[in-house]
């Protein structure tokens, strides 16, 4: 990440932008200078090596858009030239990182169609690819674009990343208040499944609605639409397994069938539906096209006439 820095004598000057407004200065600095010991940050604030608008400030100072944050350049290279964390907020991403498949990008949110087998966090992950190609606000000191909900490695489909602090806050609040509906398509082993899946996972209540869309009796498999009511880790996979109808090819959770050419189980997060409009430039419904291997496999079911964006 490269920041626009204006020099004022021995100070680097950073202008507080919208994504850093309304936050304590010490919390901004703790993220911006992530490799710097906290004691050094607080010492720099106390001794005036870090100032706001040319004056000393307290650690709990609440920033205002347009504030000038001044940091003594010598502060970054204290301790015999060792780095104190400057420019280390975002990890280096290799040039070979593939550009993610974008469904929709706005100033606040980024919707990506994740591939099966793609990890979200860590090295060579979707997070790193997003930081390289769609970093969000360039000049924010503390904000970093990141995923706003989970998606397992071998689950494909919609995953949402923040592009601004406002986007992250509004999306997360909507999730917490159950104003975002999540829909999945999956193929199960078996042709009978309950419409309401209720269970306890890791001590927490889990609830999923299931709707069979097509069955293939000769192969003993079914195409099912799932609507998540709660969102626990591996929720759909665990609930299907406990009912004796695991996701096809989901060996971890008890599938006994395997089909040649399938990379893993078939589970695709194909739709997000917003009960209330979050932003004017984000539609009420976001859909993600099926992966090629999933689409090819569906031909086993014959002519499926339903659209992927059918109403709930």
Automatic annotation (TrEMBL):
CDD domains referenced in this protein's UniProt entry, alphabetically: PseudoU_synth_RluA_like, S4
InterPro entries: PsdUridine_synth_cat_dom_sf, PsdUridine_synth_RsuA/RluA, RluA_PseudoU_synthase, S4_RNA-bd, S4_RNA-bd_sf
GO annotation (BP), single: enzyme-directed rRNA pseudouridine synthesis
Pfam families linked: PseudoU_synth_2
Keywords from the named record: Isomerase, RNA-binding
Alphabetical list of SUPFAM superfamilies matching this protein: Alpha-L RNA-binding motif, Pseudouridine synthase
PANTHER family: MITOCHONDRIAL RNA PSEUDOURIDINE SYNTHASE (PTHR21600), PSEUDOURIDYLATE SYNTHASE RPUSD4, MITOCHONDRIAL (PTHR21600:SF83)
Family to which this protein belongs: Belongs to the pseudouridine synthase RluA family.
Protein name according to UniProt: RNA pseudouridylate synthase
UniProt organism field: Treponema pedis str. T A4
Lineage: Bacteria, Pseudomonadati, Spirochaetota, Spirochaetia, Spirochaetales
């Amino acid at each position: 990440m490269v920041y626009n820095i204006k020099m004022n004598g021995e100070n680097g000057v950073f202008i507080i932008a919208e994504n850093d407004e309304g936050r304590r200065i010490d919390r901004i600095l703790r993220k911006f200078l992530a490799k710097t010991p906290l004691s050094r940050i607080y010492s720099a604030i106390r001794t005036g090596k870090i100032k706001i608008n040319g004056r000393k400030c307290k650690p709990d100072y609440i920033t205002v858009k347009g504030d000038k944050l001044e940091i003594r350049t010598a502060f970054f290279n204290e301790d015999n030239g060792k780095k104190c964390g400057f420019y280390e907020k975002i990890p280096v991403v290799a040039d070979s990182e593939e550009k993610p498949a974008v469904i929709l990008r706005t100033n606040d949110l980024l919707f990506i169609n994740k591939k099966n087998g793609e990890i979200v966090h860590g090295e060579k992950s979707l997070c790193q690819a997003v930081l390289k190609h769609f970093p969000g606000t360039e000049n924010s000191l503390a904000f970093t674009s990141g995923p706003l909900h989970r998606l397992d490695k071998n689950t494909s489909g919609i995953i949402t990343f923040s592009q601004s602090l406002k986007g992250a806050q509004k999306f997360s609040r909507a999730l917490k208040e159950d104003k975002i509906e999540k829909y999945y398509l999956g193929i199960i082993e078996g042709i009978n499944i309950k419409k309401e899946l209720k269970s306890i996972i890791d001590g927490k209540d889990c609830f999923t609605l299931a709707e069979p869309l097509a069955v293939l009796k000769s192969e003993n498999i079914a195409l099912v639409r799932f609507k998540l009511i709660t969102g626990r880790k591996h929720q759909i996979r665990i609930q299907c397994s406990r009912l004796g109808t695991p996701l096809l090819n989901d060996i971890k959770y008890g599938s006994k069938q395997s089909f040649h050419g399938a990379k893993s189980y078939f589970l695709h997060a194909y739709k997000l539906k917003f009960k209330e409009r979050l932003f004017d430039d984000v539609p009420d419904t976001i859909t993600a096209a099926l992966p090629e291997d999933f689409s090819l496999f569906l031909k086993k079911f014959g002519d499926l006439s339903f659209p992927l964006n059918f109403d709930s």
